[in-house]
Design brief:
Blueprint: H1 5-20, H2 27-34, H3 38-50, E1 54-58, E2 69-73, E3 79-85, E4 89-96, E5 101-108, H4 115-128, E6 139-144, E7 147-149, E8 154-157, E9 165-168, H5 170-177, E10 181-185, H6 186-196, E11 206-211, E12 215-221, E13 224-226, E14 240-241, H7 249-252, E15 263-264, H8 266-269, H9 271-283, H10 299-307, H11 311-335, E16 339-343, H12 351-367, E17 374-377, H13 384-396
Helix pairs in contact: 2-3, 6-13, 9-11, 11-12
């Protein structure tokens, strides 16, 4: 059957995805997995090999005779760039065609930066991780904080960047760099990183909770990223929260955060909330070894204070842990995940945070006779969201639509 360019692109993309999900696959196994005849599959495999996207290697074999040939990705097939940002920082990373990280860069966002200034900083970070020699990446993925219209490539709104409303990112960057640009919520791109490279590898159902300036939940259900009916799933930090201890409540609550419906979870359990509460406690005269620390406080300061068993650091960290544990327990009751993965700066606090968080979760789940999922911190580091955004671009990209144009067949004449 003769296929048009779209069908060819989709089939070649399916081949690449199937190869990407294995450590190596034979041509026969590939054809069987795609439901194609070996001859038909072979035609497209040869195209992808000729264009540098696939290569064949010999598989180590125990038995005598010629080792079978295996198809695998060609790292030199091209590069993908991922960007992850939120209210305080921008992270960018480049990966090769086989998902291996190559370069990364980061920049800070100041409270006075306008949306236009932030967009220019994103461009600077993309430029810093560009391939050498004037080459272009195959595609760019961007993890966007808050709500996002991925279909139209627009960052809809984000609470923690002033005037961040309906910012057109994909069109601008696609025009500037001449490649496809894909947008996703940055928490969901972090969940993708965990699914493809991290602690979610091989799991069908897990939740990745990212706590930075705000809090979001990336839901992987049935092995697929769940986005919701309007692409707004995972706004976990916007849940209204009520139970704060009398002593710590004044440090967390502010006039603009407290309403008759309660305070948002991200105003009591995010990295931003923890640092703000600590500063408010110091201003209120609480004793701590960090009283004379340079402002603004950082998570490294809190980590070091915990290592020295500072009572205020322990008190505030445990309050954050209990609030976060309560919220995650409620989410677990809805989703029933195999694992909860906590990502973001709070993971720097290790068991000082994870321990009381697990205790609060278990206390709530035990009351409902519900299974306690495994709870762990991400081990992917601060660039996990950027790597997830790069992986998003890698999985969304199709060979026939490179740079937004159908690829010309080898040997075809130009008109």
């Amino acid at each position: 059957m003769r296929r048009n360019s779209i069908q060819t692109s989709d089939l070649e993309s399916s081949i690449l995805k199937l190869v990407r999900n294995t450590d190596g696959i034979s041509r026969v196994e590939l054809a069987r997995g795609l439901g194609l005849s070996p001859s038909t599959s072979g035609i497209y495999v040869e195209r992808l090999i000729a264009r540098g996207f696939l290569k064949e290697t010999e598989k180590m074999a125990r038995e005598a005779g010629r080792p079978p040939m295996q198809l695998c990705l060609n790292p030199a097939g091209g590069e993908f760039i991922g960007v992850d940002f939120e209210a305080r920082s921008i992270m960018a990373a480049a990966v090769d065609f086989a998902d291996t990280p190559l370069r990364n860069a980061r920049a800070q966002i100041s409270a006075t930066d306008t949306p236009a200034a932030i967009v220019r900083k994103i461009e600077d970070m993309i430029d810093k991780v560009m391939p050498s020699g004037g080459r272009r990446p195959l595609a760019i993925g961007i993890g966007v904080p808050g709500l996002v219209n991925a279909k139209d490539g627009i960052a809809t709104r984000y609470k923690y960047i002033s005037n961040w409303v309906n910012v057109p990112l994909a069109g601008r960057f696609s025009k500037k760099y001449g490649v496809p640009v894909f947008l996703e919520n940055n928490v969901r791109s972090t969940a993708l990183a965990e699914l493809w490279f991290g602690q979610g590898l091989g799991l069908a159902d897990f939740i990745c909770v990212v706590a930075r300036s705000g809090i979001g939940a990336g839901l992987v259900l049935g092995g697929q990223l769940y986005r919701g009916a309007c692409n707004d799933a995972g706004e976990f930090g916007r849940w209204r929260y009520f139970a704060l201890s009398k002593r710590t409540a004044p440090w967390f609550a502010t006039p603009d955060s407290m309403t008759e419906l309660g305070i948002e979870l991200q105003d009591v359990a995010s990295a931003r909330a923890l640092l703000r509460a600590f500063q408010h406690a110091i201003d209120a005269g609480e004793k701590t070894i960090l009283r004379d620390a340079a402002a603004p406080l950082t998570m490294l300061d809190i980590q070091q204070a915990l290592q020295q068993r500072d009572p205020l650091a322990t008190l505030i960290t445990e309050e954050v842990a209990r609030c976060l544990g309560r919220g995650i327990a409620q989410l677990s009751l809805v989703v029933d995940p195999q694992k909860i993965i906590l990502a973001g700066p709070l993971t720097m606090l290790g068991e000082a945070l994870l321990g009381p968080m697990r205790e609060r979760m278990k206390a709530i789940l035990d009351l409902t006779e519900t299974r306690m999922p495994e709870v762990t911190g991400s081990t992917m580091g601060e660039f996990s969201g950027a790597l997830g955004a790069a992986a998003l671009a890698l999985h969304q990209w199709k060979p026939e639509t490179e740079a937004g144009k159908p690829a010309r067949r080898r040997g075809a004449r130009k008109k």
